[in-house]
Amino acid sequence: MGIDLGTANTLVYVSGKGIVLQEPSVVAIDQDDKLPLAVGEEAKQMLGRTPGNVVALRPLRDGVIADFDTAELMLKHFIRQVHEGRTGLVAPRIVIGIPSGVTGVERRAVMDAAIQAGARDVRLIDEPIAAAIGAGLPVAEPTGNMIVDIGGGTTEVAVLSLQGIVLSESVRVAGDELSDAIVQYMKKVHNLVIGERTAEEIKIQVGSAYPTDEDDVLMDVRGLHLLSGLPRTVTIKGPEIRESMSEPLSVIVEAVKRTLERTPPELAADIIDRGIMLAGGGALLKGLDTLISHETGIVTHVAADPLSCVVLGTGRVLENFKQLERVFRGRSRTL
């Protein structure tokens, strides 16, 4: 079983079946008896809409486990969901994608959560390598490949060659920070308080990183007006949302530039030939590939299915275990 344990979404791949689960990384818990009421999409619908005794939590922040017990509950639920209908005790071998910049303690927390959730054998793989394998890049060859994996909590920029990371940079600025920038902008400019779900909808519908043909599209946003304290509707345009996200976007672009500056000349030549590959949910932001191309002068491509790259990579590693065994990070944990 391959798992992309993401800040925003968790995806599960089962050998021979492909991607069998794609759910938001959210758990709704009843505060009275500490039991989960809902996990995944159902829990996400509850964000910002729960009564006093129910809390909807995202157990991962910045790509790592922030709430261990809730993360364990979520993993257990997803593993059980994937194996529904199967008889007997299930203790799968699990490969989990993790950000390359995590500490040893954070790495151990992910392993422990998977073991507690019922895994037999846990292996960790750096998300940039998993994303590159999932995007179809030739990571086993002695050529340079550059991948930019923009998730919910972290952006991973890495140069890969011969099944390994030559150099990488992990910045904790990604999809969540883009949404947060929209929340702050709406509050400051329009005096309108909105939730993170509304901010995400704005980002998807009218958000962009570079001027596009759809800049004149309007969107009505509903929220709470700060001055009157009453619900209010405001109409916004694409360019103002692009402006609101300019700061976190510049952090991502600077990380790409810094990594390119440190790349050995031979590998840099390969990257100029092949271009930069974007993966992760953040790669779906309109115009982001154009922005990075414009800032670096290197052709930038978006992976065919950017959201699924990491989990597809973990699946391919599982199915070609012997050939790709060198990609794993550290030692495995077994029961």
Question: What are the SSEs and their pairings?
Answer:
Blueprint: E1 2-5, E2 9-14, E3 18-24, E4 27-30, E5 35-39, H1 41-44, E6 54-57, E7 60-61, E8 64-65, H2 68-82, E9 93-98, H3 104-116, E10 121-126, H4 127-134, E11 145-150, E12 155-161, E13 164-171, H5 175-190, E14 192-193, H6 196-205, E15 218-225, E16 231-237, H7 238-244, H8 246-262, H9 265-274, E17 276-279, H10 288-296, E18 300-302, H11 309-319, E19 328-334
Parallel strand pairs: 1-9, 9-10, 11-17, 17-18
Antiparallel strand pairs: 1-2, 2-3, 4-5, 4-6, 7-8, 10-19, 11-12, 12-13, 14-15, 15-16
Helix pairs in contact: 2-3, 4-11, 5-6
Please characterize this protein's 3D structure.
- This protein has 335 residues and is of the alpha+beta class.
- The chain folds into three domains: 2-129 and 310-334, 2-Layer Sandwich (Nucleotidyltransferase, domain 5), CATH 3.30.420; 138-173 and 247-307, 2-Layer Sandwich (Nucleotidyltransferase, domain 5); 175-246, ATPase, substrate binding domain, subdomain 4 (Actin, Chain A, domain 4, Alpha-Beta Complex).
- The chain contains eleven helices and 19 strands.
- It has helices spanning 41-44, 68-82, 104-116, 127-134, 175-190, 196-205, 238-244, 246-262, 265-274, 288-296, 309-319; strands at residues 2-5, 9-14, 18-24, 27-30, 35-39, 54-57, 60-61, 64-65, 93-98, 121-126, 145-150, 155-161, 164-171, 192-193, 218-225, 231-237, 276-279, 300-302, 328-334.
- The protein has a six-stranded mixed β-sheet, with helices on both faces. The chain has a five-stranded mixed β-sheet with strand order 13-12-11-17-18, with helices on both faces.
- Helix 2 (68-82) packs across helix 3.
- The longest helix has 17 residues, at 246-262.
- It starts with a strand and ends with a strand.
